[in-house]
Design the sequence.
């Protein structure tokens, strides 16, 4: 019997279109002899839809929820149900509304980029619903989405990150000159200004002087109320490495070197520079990167350690900057759901995308099985003696003693 695989994508995110491209790619490569692939699209308003036509990229050119073959649904949150429900309004004068099942999902493959999907919110929903899902869990996803928290986490773990400072929209609005002075005093120029909770280089700018810094901050604060400012390097080499696995079973991919002639890849470079339907897979790169074996081994070992520390699962991609002058490597960020699911890195290692999808689903089921082993039935007997409104009754913590 085939497994029912829900490929969930879109959502209320600036990266919704990138998510659509990644999801349509994945649905084309998934093994239909093993799985029934059920697309689940969340639109920019947060409404959920399913239907076979959602496997076609053309459906999203001018998305219309009233298109034939598209059905509006919502998830059943009863533990372990996995059902996608819809409201059948019936027909005729005496018709009654009733809730019916559109599909029942065995495993969700999360293909979200950015907020409301990659940030732990959707993962929390699936944890509550007790349904297996690919991608890192709630905590790791939340840390991986927030660049400020991520940087503090890496620094606390003793991992190499570039110097940086962060500010809120209120701080910049009240004292913009003080913010600019702090950046200049602590970091100097150039710097990179980044919204805390966005990916795909949206809202990210390089600043080489005070005027550019103010412009960069104003842009970044349009997308987030918290902004990170990081010290820039002089013509660094960008290196990306993917990790696949769960718990003690991890593997690091070959390392890619995105071709970066302007020292910074923006959204257009990443997703529109080549074939706009291929996502990150169309980016110009050298793969494998022409680096020394010692650096390659260091990056791969560091990537596996980050995967372990953040309790990741499935496939992630970790981005680095290598300083040619100091020969130091710095972590830029972790992408807990990377563009195109980083399949091109694994294909370079001899693993077809179809096999990568199999492994992601397998790890999702293993993680879910591990969760079911946890004991949720601890009985403290605390309710036996609990009473409210009775004179002299003890509270939940018992009576205080003199």
Sequence:
């Amino acid at each position: 019997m085939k497994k029912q695989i829900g490929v969930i994508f879109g959502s209320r995110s600036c990266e919704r279109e990138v998510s659509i491209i990644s999801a349509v790619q994945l649905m084309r490569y998934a093994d239909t002899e093993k799985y029934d692939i059920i697309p689940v699209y969340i639109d920019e308003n947060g409404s959920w839809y399913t239907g076979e036509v959602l496997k076609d990229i053309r459906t999203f050119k001018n998305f219309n929820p009233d298109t034939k073959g598209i059905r509006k649904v919502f998830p059943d949150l009863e533990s372990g149900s996995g059902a996608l429900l819809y409201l059948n309004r019936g027909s005729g004068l005496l018709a009654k509304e009733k809730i019916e099942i559109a599909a029942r999902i065995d495993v969700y493959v999360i293909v979200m980029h950015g907020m409301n999907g990659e940030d732990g919110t959707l993962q929390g929903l699936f944890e509550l619903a007790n349904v297996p899902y690919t991608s890192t869990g709630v905590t790791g996803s939340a840390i991986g989405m927030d660049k400020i928290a991520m940087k503090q986490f890496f620094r606390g773990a003793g991992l190499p990150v570039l110097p940086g400072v962060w500010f809120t929209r209120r701080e910049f609005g009240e004292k913009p000159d003080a913010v600019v002075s702090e950046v200049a005093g602590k970091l100097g120029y150039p710097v990179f200004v980044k919204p805390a909770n966005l990916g795909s280089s949206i809202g990210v700018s390089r600043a080489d002087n005070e005027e550019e810094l103010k412009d960069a901050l104003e842009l970044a604060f349009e997308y987030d109320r918290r902004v990170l400012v990081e010290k820039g390097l002089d013509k660094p080499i960008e290196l990306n490495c993917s990790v696949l696995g769960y718990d003690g079973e991890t593997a690091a991919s070959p390392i890619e070197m995105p071709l970066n002639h302007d020292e910074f890849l923006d959204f257009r470079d990443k997703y529109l520079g080549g074939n706009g339907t291929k996502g990150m897979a169309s980016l110009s790169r050298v793969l494998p990167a022409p680096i020394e074996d010692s650096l390659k081994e260091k990056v791969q070992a560091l990537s596996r350690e980050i995967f372990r520390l953040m309790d990741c699962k499935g496939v992630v991609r970790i981005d680095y900057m290598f300083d040619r002058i100091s020969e130091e490597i710095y972590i830029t960020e972790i992408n807990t759901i990377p563009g195109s699911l980083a399949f091109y890195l694994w294909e370079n290692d001899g693993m077809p995308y179809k096999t990568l999808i199999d492994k992601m689903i397998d790890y999702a089921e293993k993680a879910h099985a591990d969760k079911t082993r946890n004991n949720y039935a601890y009985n403290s007997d605390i309710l036996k003696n609990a009473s409210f409104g009775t004179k002299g009754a003890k509270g939940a913590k018992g009576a205080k003693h003199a």
About this structure: The chain is about 30% helix and 25% strand. Confidence is low (pLDDT under 50) at residues 265-274. The longest helix spans residues 353-372.
